[in-house]
Amino acid sequence: MKVAVISFSGNVGKTTIARHLLAPRLPGASLVSIESINAGEGEDHVIRGRQFAELQEFLQVVDDAVVDIGASNVEELLGLMRRYRGSHEDFDHYVVPTVPAAKQQQDTIATLAELSRIGIPPDKVRVVFNMVEDERELERVFEPVLAFARMTSLARVTPECRLGSNEVYGHAKGSGVDLATLAADPTDYKAQIAATSDSTERLALAQRLAIRRLAIGVVPELDACFAALRLGASTSDTSQRHHPSRSAP
Question: Sorted alphabetically, which InterPro entries does this protein's record hold (predicted)?
Answer without folding.
Answer: P-loop_NTPase, StbB-like
